[in-house]
Amino acid sequence: MAYANVTYTGDGANKEFQIPFEYLNQTHLTVTRDAVADTNGVEYSINTSTQKVVYVTAPATDVAVKIQRVTPIATEDRPVDFEGGSGLGEDDLDSVALSSVFLAQEAKDDEDDALVLKADVSYVDAQVAANSVTDQAYTDTVVAANSVTDQAYTDALDAINSAGDRAYADA
Fold first, then answer.
1. Contact 56, 93 (CB under 8 A)
2. Which pLDDT score is estimated for 31?
3. According to the 3-state scheme, what is the secondary structure of 133-168?
4. Residue range 58-77: average pLDDT?
5. 66: nearest Cα among 111, 10, 106, 109
6. In the sheet where 16-18 sits, what is the strand order?
7. Facing residues of 34 across strands?
8. CA dihedral in degrees (20, 23, 25, 30; nearest 10)?
9. How far is the C-alpha of 142 from the C-alpha of 126, rounded, in Å?
10. Banded model confidence at residue 160, pLDDT cuts 50, 70, 90
11. What is the dihedral of CA 133, 135, 140, 142, to 10 degrees?
12. Is the distance from CB of 67 to CB of 33 less than 8 angstroms?
């Protein structure tokens, strides 16, 4: 289960895609179609009351629409900069806590994606190894069959030549 991203498949008609996770700011969202970034305010907008990405033009059929939260990790991008002597408000404390939770969730999603990729690579490696074994077994079989065929041919040719030599000698 992904915490900070979701992928939908375009159908050529639907323009609205639900954002099923929280975010601190719209600038923390990336939206792509077939891994190509779209721009908020150009190709789509975000309806904050329905929590949906709304495209100007519906994504084409079978196009992957991915919505992902990418919380800034740099110190200068922190959600709150506390000043000495300032009051701690609920919103500020919530923003700091949610920022930490969101970063942890995004790291977990990245880890899960890496594991899936590793599993895919392992499957491909296993297929290549199996094909290599199959190819080698086929090659070994063909070589063995050719050896038998070549030997049988050589033996038959020798027998014919011997019989011919004997017939010539007897004549």
1. no
2. 98
3. HHHHHHHHHHHHHHHHHHHHHHHHHHHHHHHHHHHH
4. 92
5. 10
6. 16-18, 52-55, 44-47
7. none
8. -60
9. 24
10. low
11. 160
12. no
Exposure pattern of 47-56 as b/e (b: 16+ CB <10 Å)? Answer: eeeeebbebe
Instruction: Residue 34: name the closest of 43, 42, 46 by CA.
Output: 43
Amino acid at 113: D
26 CB contacts (<8 Å, ≥6 apart)? Answer: 40, 46, 48
DSSP string for 11-54: -SS--EEE--S--S-GGGEEEEETTEE--BTTTEEEETTTTEEE
Extract the tokens encoding 15. Answer: 């323009």
Determine the residue type at 20: P
Is residue 28 within 8 A of residue 37, CB to CB? The reply is no
CA distance 43 to 32: 10
